[in-house]
TrEMBL record:
<feature type="domain" description="Peptide-N-glycosidase F N-terminal">
    <location>
        <begin position="70"/>
        <end position="193"/>
    </location>
</feature>
<protein>
    <recommendedName>
        <fullName>Peptide-N-glycosidase F N-terminal domain-containing protein</fullName>
    </recommendedName>
</protein>
<keyword id="KW-1015">Disulfide bond</keyword>
<dbReference type="InterPro" id="IPR053251">
    <property type="entry name" value="N-glycanase"/>
</dbReference>
<dbReference type="Pfam" id="PF09113">
    <property type="entry name" value="N-glycanase_C"/>
</dbReference>
<dbReference type="InterPro" id="IPR014784">
    <property type="entry name" value="Cu2_ascorb_mOase-like_C"/>
</dbReference>
<dbReference type="GO" id="GO:0016715">
    <property type="term" value="F:oxidoreductase activity, acting on paired donors, with incorporation or reduction of molecular oxygen, reduced ascorbate as one donor, and incorporation of one atom of oxygen"/>
</dbReference>
<dbReference type="InterPro" id="IPR015196">
    <property type="entry name" value="PngaseF_N"/>
</dbReference>
<dbReference type="InterPro" id="IPR008977">
    <property type="entry name" value="PHM/PNGase_F_dom_sf"/>
</dbReference>
<dbReference type="InterPro" id="IPR015197">
    <property type="entry name" value="PngaseF_C"/>
</dbReference>
Amino acid sequence: MRAPLLLPLATSTLLATSLLTSCSQPAPEEPLIVVEELPLYDFESAAPWYPCPEAPLDERVVVVEALSGVDQYFGEENRRSVRAPVTFPQGDWQQVGLRFELECPENGLCDHWDRTGSLGLILNPDAPEADQHEVELLRHITPYRRGMCQYVDLTPLAGLLTGERALHSFIDTWVGPGHDQGEGWRVSARFEFSPGYAEQADQVIPLIGRRNITVGEADPSVDDQLEAMRFELPETFSRVEAHLTTTGHSFGNTLNCAEFCPMRHDLLVNAQSFSINPWRADCAQNPVSPQAGTWQYPRNGWCPGAVTVGDRVDITAAVQPGENQLDLDILLADGSEYTNTSPVDLLPSTAVALKLYVWH
């Protein structure tokens, strides 16, 4: 905990005068008061399920209701993707949380299936859609036939959550009004800004917004789909983290990949390797339960009815001022190449998002 701020009850001018006069003491009628920082929410103890907290918010928290009960479905109208403008506040934030909620439609008929979903931040919403730059804020998989609510930490990204932006919510659903397997979802997203000492990264470097990479094929191979990425760092920095989010999809292929086979993801930073295996063996412990379907089965990077926050890796020791290079490889858990010799119609793939956080 940092030392508390000391603020007078008088004006900032009187404060400056009192601080510059080394021999003076605050007048009795102008005592110093201690202004404590807001208590931080303990996201680490909420892992890996990140349920929405029930405690009331402190009145000093700034709330932005970005999406409220927005319908997403597929039918005569395709609402698998929705975009909405959002205005974020200016300020210094010691913590930023995102409260993300999925509810069933008004008639209660949730989608029957576990669908991949994503919430992205569009940095330049006035640009043509093809030229927009998007950073993924949240990856999630919908539950089977029920709602969910999760609360995740966006503090490193606070520097991007300012001014006029837009949100892009995507759910890979194929049901809608009148469908016999449910009618979709209602989506809400609320940002909660806790004022205090700024804790966000000084720089965010988006490398992959969100992409599906086919695995196990010779043409195209993973290398064909993921070229080396180059990025610049300032002359001085104290810490650099890579934030990688991956979820594997499709089954029935060789080794039941990529949903039901453990896979390893290697970040090669200036030729130094950092390996991540996001296998989830704990799906049966999900508090968003009971569900229908196979919600209890382990999966590659995700569980039905849960958020996937990804992995943050400290790569400071591998980077340097100026130009750096980063490669990403996707392998089997034992480090061997994956070859899909018995493909089904839906080829196995990994949905990838990657960004860097830089603290000066």
